[in-house]
Design a protein that fits this description.
There is one protein chain. It is globular, with a radius of gyration of 24 Å. It is mainly α. The protein contains 20 helices and four strands. Helix 5 runs antiparallel to helix 6, helix 11 runs antiparallel to helix 12 and helix 19 packs antiparallel against helix 20. The protein has a domain of 67 residues. The strands form two sheets. The chain has a two-stranded parallel sheet. Strands 3-4 form a two-stranded parallel sheet. About 7% of the residues have low confidence.
Length: 362
């Protein structure tokens, strides 16, 4: 496609589209056995992503996850592919039956390779049979998936104890080159290494720290990773990353929390982002918050948001933070609201504020 595109002065993607449109290029697909989460392309900068999504869209026999019948039992799903975590944000809602017996998800945040698939599956089974913790399983899976291993590579030998040891990265982190230290941390994260990187206040470590925070969301290590991200995520860093490319904005969105007043403007910015995943991440950040004037103003603006889920959270927030001055805006939102759940929450907010005002006057 690159060579043909040069001749026709088109990009490889444009050349591919032109050949398909003229019937000059046909791709034979085999989707049997696949479950389709959705048909959105989250990796639009990659040629292969366009080809795969195009083929799924034109296949009338694809199996949509939202239409599958699941019985009530516990499930652990490993999505073993490149950056599969990008597709997780609405996966549980596509088919609530899949969650009925409990559902744990394991995905990736970087490129993975075909040569490592077998070792990855065997390592997962080994870890489960040995009843490892979720954090230990993630570390072990990470260890058997080196960056750019080559077509004939085999997984690095790691013992169960070394995969779970918290201080295995310390010798590597002693290198004076900061970029090498960040890469060493990304390969084998540890709380001590996260703290050391955060102490540098260098946002080149930001993405690696956020990835570690998202990978280890439970247990004692989770606090250390959250604190490291919080140290690096200053308002200046958040402003820079929230104004960057798509990957940068998604990374920054994961670092936001409505518990911190200085994050509120960036949450508001993220709720208006053109990318639905950035908006979803920022919406989730509103589920836990601490009172602040900026957050009140954000809720007041958000009751007019396009997404009813955002409007619902805003209505709940105003019901707790708002006052009589907010009643006209809440009533106007209630009159215009079409979503039943959001209408109920808006009505609750109006009644709550009116009752509080009546109590204060009485």
């Amino acid at each position: 496609m690159v060579e043909r595109g040069r001749t026709s002065k088109r990009s490889p993607l444009a050349e591919y589209r032109a050949l398909v449109a003229r019937g000059r290029l046909q791709i034979r697909r085999v989707n049997s056995g696949n479950l389709v989460i959705n048909l959105r392309n989250y990796h639009t900068a990659e040629f292969g992503a366009h080809v795969m999504v195009d083929q799924l869209k034109t296949d009338p026999n694809i199996r949509r996850m939202s239409k599958q019948a699941f019985d009530k039992r516990y499930r652990l799903w490993l999505f073993n592919g490149c950056r599969t975590n990008d597709y997780f944000y609405n996966l549980r809602k596509l088919n609530p039956k899949a969650n009925a017996g409990g559902l744990d998800l394991i995905g990736t945040r970087r490129v993975t390779y075909w040569s490592m698939i077998g070792d990855t599956m065997l390592k997962l089974l080994d870890e489960l049979l040995q009843r490892r913790t979720f954090s230990q399983i993630l570390q072990s899976l990470h260890a058997v998936n080196p960056d750019n291993p080559g077509d004939d590579a085999r997984a690095r030998a790691t013992s169960p104890t070394s995969a779970a040891a918290p201080d295995t990265t310390e010798p590597t982190m002693s290198t004076p080159d900061f970029a090498s230290r960040v890469q060493a941390f990304a390969d084998n994260p540890s709380p001590a290494a996260a703290k050391a990187l955060a102490a540098e206040h260098d946002d080149r470590a930001f993405a690696a720290l956020v990835d570690a925070m998202n990978d280890f969301m439970e247990g004692l290590d989770a606090v250390a990773y959250r604190e490291a991200v919080r140290t690096v995520a200053t308002p200046a860093v958040l402003a820079k990353w929230m104004s960057g490319d798509l990957d940068a904005r998604r990374t920054a969105a994961h670092a936001l929390s409505a518990r911190f007043p200085d994050h509120v403007p960036f949450i508001a910015q993220g709720l208006r982002d053109p990318d639905d995943q950035v908006r979803a991440i920022c919406r989730r950040s509103l589920r836990s918050w601490s009172s602040s004037p900026g957050l009140h103003d954000l809720f007041l603006e958000a009751v007019r948001h396009d997404d009813p889920r955002v409007r619902l959270l805003a209505a709940e927030g105003l019901g707790k933070l708002g006052g009589p001055a907010d009643l006209p805006a809440l009533q106007a939102a209630l009159d215009a609201e079409q979503d039943d759940r959001t209408r109920d929450r808006l009505a609750w907010a109006v009644e709550r504020i009116e009752d509080q005002a009546a109590d204060e006057q009485g």
